[in-house]
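@channel sequence for tomorrow's demo:
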Amino acid sequence: MFSDIIESLSDEPILAALFSIFMNIAAAITGFLPSAFITAGTVAAFDLKVGLVLLIIGEAAGAIISFILYRKGITKLTSSFPQLKNNKFFSKLQSAEGPDAFFMVVLLRVLPFVPSGAVTLAAAFSKMRLLPFGIASTIGKIPALFMEAFAISHILKFERDLQIAIFLLVAFFFLIYYLYKNAKLS
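structure tokens (generated this afternoon):
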């Protein structure tokens, strides 16, 4: 769906770029929308290099805007992530300041299965300031975005049947992971 929208905007590259950035911001604010579809649409509409730049801009803007929003509504949001109180990394991040907080955000952004929304929420709940958070968050996301965009750009070159098979396989593994995590929490 996203790739269809962005491809329909291919005659208007500025609108397509703004749409991609806006969708990354929306995904970051909600904290649960998957960004892989945004990456796929952006890489399909633009080449890998331009797409990667747009994705980095969108991820950085999304992290900064969600940090500001989370900080404003922190009491409501902490009830949405009760597992943060029991996680040693997030507990450390909440009490960390200065370089310690900066490097913890970079590390948590680089790790592939750490939810971005949870990292942003923990940082917003901490004593960390906006500028160091924005820089650390962006530095940490660049490797993950590069790998995701690179993989997707190559998958987009495959035949449609193989693309569907890869998508179903990835969806299957995410479903298994989700079921495993929920069974573990019960």
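heads up for whoever presents: The chain has a mean pLDDT of 82.
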